[in-house]
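User: Structure please.
Assistant: Input sequence and predicted structure:
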Amino acid sequence: MQRILILAAFLCSLNAQILYRWEVSSGGQIDTTSGFKGMTVGQTSQAHLVNASSDTATFGYWHKEWEPEICITINDSIWDVRNAEFPDTIPCHYTVDMLPEDRITINNCGNCAIDLGLRFVESSHDSVILAYYAGRNKGVVRAVFREDELMPDYEPSDYIKDVISWSTYSVFGPSGFNMATYDELKLWFQMSTPMYTTIGDDPALNLTFTIELKAKFNMP
C-alpha cells in the first residue's frame, strides 16, 4: 500500500488592530491629546470625571493604523511516505515516522506572531479517510511542530482531524503556537496505515491524502 501526503498552505486574515481612545466632555469639548488617526468603530461608553465641570463624559474608540500581515513559506509540500524497510510500498497496519530529510520547514515571513493549525482535506479515494485510530479504511496522520532538529515523539492527541486543530501545548507541540516573526519551524509527520482496505484487489493501492496548513494571528 503506497501513501503520499500533500501539504497545502492557507492563511487566515484577521483584523488585529489596537483600540485607542478619544474623549468628549459633557460640554462638547474633545480631547485631542492622543490624535485621531484611524477608523472609528463606533464604540462609546459613559464614565465619571472627577475634575470636570460635569461629572460625565463620553469615550469613543478607534483603530490604530496598523494591520497584521500573515505570511508563511514552506520548503516542500509533498511527503512520499517511506522508510528504509519499505522504500517503495508500505504495508497495511504499519506506522511510518517521517525521515529527517523529508521534514518540512516553515518560515514566518509576516509582521506578527502566528498560530499554526492543520486539517485533513481529502483523500484520493473517498472511502479511505484519516481518523483518530487505524481501522478498516481508516488511517492516522499525526503531526508535531518543533524548533530544533530532533525527531519528535508523537502523542495520540497529535492526530489530524477533518476540522481545523490549532497548535497548543497538548496538540502538535507548543512550537506551533505564538510563532514569532522570522522564526523557522520543522513540521514532522507520522502515519499509521489502515488495518486493511476494501478497495479493489490490487495490494499496491496508491493513495494521496491532502493536509491543509493554516496560519492565524496570535491573539495575546
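The mean pLDDT is 77.
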